[in-house]
């Protein structure tokens, strides 16, 4: 098949960029060798070009998901954890089940999660994988990169794990042996040597990502880990400030706020991204903005676990770097990017409204401009690419990677819209994905992944869930 494509007659294009550049006046996009080469109206077809007719469609950048745990794609809606907050949920679901993940199960879960994300229009995925221990017996990193490569998405492995056993996972049912610092660093170096690409439009990248910086490694090791990552030229990632208990822990153990603790250990900067950051003091917001440290904002997971509402709009207003992640499917059964941006768009408005107080001379209404559609789209595309270091990815513009989602809005849900461009975000649900392009390749066509047997994937998932319930379920 030709690697030259001409998308024609799109109704509208949201580019993923900020400000006036968020909307393009183009209707046509020309693509060659995985890159957008021209945008305009009524572009002439050139020899060897395949034409994609995008009438009634809107074009978005392929989403960039900056935080996930793909292994959890087989742990959705586990009854034992459905009404629990973070700590007991961790014990009841991921920590108990992770021991059952061999290579085959991890590959199956990864396929489910990646396919789910692709069908929402996602083309770049960062997976924070943390099932690493000395007796594992297989290479989860290679398995994840291979599954992503087969489906054609860009992939970053945020290589998790820890060197200490945290209190939560110390009992027999959840215990896994910790790694040594040298073992962890050496493995990241090995993976980075194989998969970490720099330069424009990378396909694969690696991050050093101890699971939770304040509890998964010894305090004395934290600075060493940051320095090792910078020596290798890989970014840093970790969970941070997901619940109030992070603040309580840091204040009791270290006498400071979590972000101050990270600053002290060289864990802030434009090469650092932090998942959640649901609870931030003003001083922490300023530190994050000043250092360019990225937020991987996970609104649905934070809501599901009753973590709270992250101050993403406030960080954005300070000039900070915001991106969006779906987090693992065990705490977000809608682990797709369209659901995430829709929810994000609504949640911050609800939150702003809830904080509104009667004013003597006011009308008691505020907050509907807290975050716009263009803003959440930017966070979930260009913002994510910047936070993960995928240069040349994340916007629909000439010279950028041809990662695009072409949504067909020919369905009752979208009838009556005055502004078609915002349909996929404001109307929720999932529009028919006419095409998903990753690096200029057709990854999805007419709402299907060519060569993927969806019935087979469903059957494998059902059989595996049954097996998990029989062997581990309570
Ligand atoms: Zn997470």
UniProtKB/TrEMBL annotation:
- Identify the CDD domains for this entry: ATZ_TRZ_like
- Which one of the record's GO molecular function terms can you name? hydrolase activity, acting on carbon-nitrogen (but not peptide) bonds
Domain Amidohydrolase-related: residue ranges: 58-429
Q: Is the Hydrolase keyword given for this protein?
A: yes
Question: What residue ranges are annotated as transmembrane?
Answer: none
| Keyword list, A-Z | Hydrolase
Q: Which family is annotated? A: Belongs to the metallo-dependent hydrolases superfamily. ATZ/TRZ family.
This chain belongs to the protein called Amidohydrolase
């Amino acid at each position: 098949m030709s690697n030259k494509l001409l998308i024609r007659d799109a109704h509208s294009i949201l580019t993923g960029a900020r400000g006036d550049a968020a909307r393009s006046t183009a209707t046509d996009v020309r693509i060659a060798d995985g890159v957008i080469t021209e945008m305009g109206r009524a572009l002439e077809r050139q020899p060897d070009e395949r034409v994609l007719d995008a009438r009634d469609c809107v074009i978005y950048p392929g989403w960039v998901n900056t935080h996930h745990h793909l292994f959890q794609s087989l742990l959705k809606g586990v009854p034992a954890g459905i009404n629990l907050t973070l700590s007991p949920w961790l014990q009841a679901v991921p920590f108990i089940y992770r021991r059952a993940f061999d290579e085959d199960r991890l590959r199956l879960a990864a396929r489910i999660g990646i396919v789910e994300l692709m069908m929402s229009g996602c083309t770049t995925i960062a997976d924070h994988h943390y099932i690493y221990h000395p007796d594992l017996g297989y290479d989860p990193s290679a398995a994840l990169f291979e599954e992503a490569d087969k489906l054609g998405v860009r992939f970053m492995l945020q290589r998790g794990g820890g060197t200490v056993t945290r209190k939560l996972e110390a009992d027999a049912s959840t215990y896994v042996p910790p790694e040594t610092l040298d073992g962890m660093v050496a493995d990241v170096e090995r993976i980075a040597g194989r998969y970490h690409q720099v330069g424009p439009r990378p396909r694969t990248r690696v991050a050093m990502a101890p699971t939770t910086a304040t509890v998964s490694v010894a305090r004395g090791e934290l600075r060493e880990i940051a320095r090792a990552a910078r020596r290798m030229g890989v970014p840093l990632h970790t969970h941070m400030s997901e619940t109030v208990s992070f603040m309580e822990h840091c204040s009791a153990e270290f006498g400071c706020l979590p972000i101050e603790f990270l600053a002290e250990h060289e864990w802030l900067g434009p090469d650092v991204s932090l998942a959640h950051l649901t609870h931030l003091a003003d001083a922490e917001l300023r530190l994050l903005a000043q250092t360019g440290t990225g937020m991987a904002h996970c609104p649905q997971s934070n809501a599901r676990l009753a973590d709270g509402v992250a101050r993403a709009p406030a960080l954005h207003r300070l000039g900070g770097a915001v991106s969006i992640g779906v987090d693992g499917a065990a705490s977000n059964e809608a682990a797709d990017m369209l659901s995430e941006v829709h929810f994000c768009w609504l949640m911050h408005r609800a939150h702003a409204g809830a904080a509104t107080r009667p004013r003597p001379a006011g009308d008691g209404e505020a907050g509907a401009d807290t975050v716009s559609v263009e803003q959440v789209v930017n966070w979930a595309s260009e913002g994510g690419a910047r936070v993960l270091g995928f240069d040349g990815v994340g916007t629909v513009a000439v010279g950028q990677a041809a990662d695009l989602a072409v949504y067909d809005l020919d369905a009752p849900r979208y009838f009556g819209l005055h502004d078609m461009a915002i349909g996929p975000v404001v109307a929720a649900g999932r529009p028919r994905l006419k095409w998903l392009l990753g690096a200029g390749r057709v990854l999805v066509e007419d709402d299907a992944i060519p060569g993927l047997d969806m019935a087979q994937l469903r059957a494998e998932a059902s059989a595996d869930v049954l097996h998990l319930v029989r062997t581990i379920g309570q």
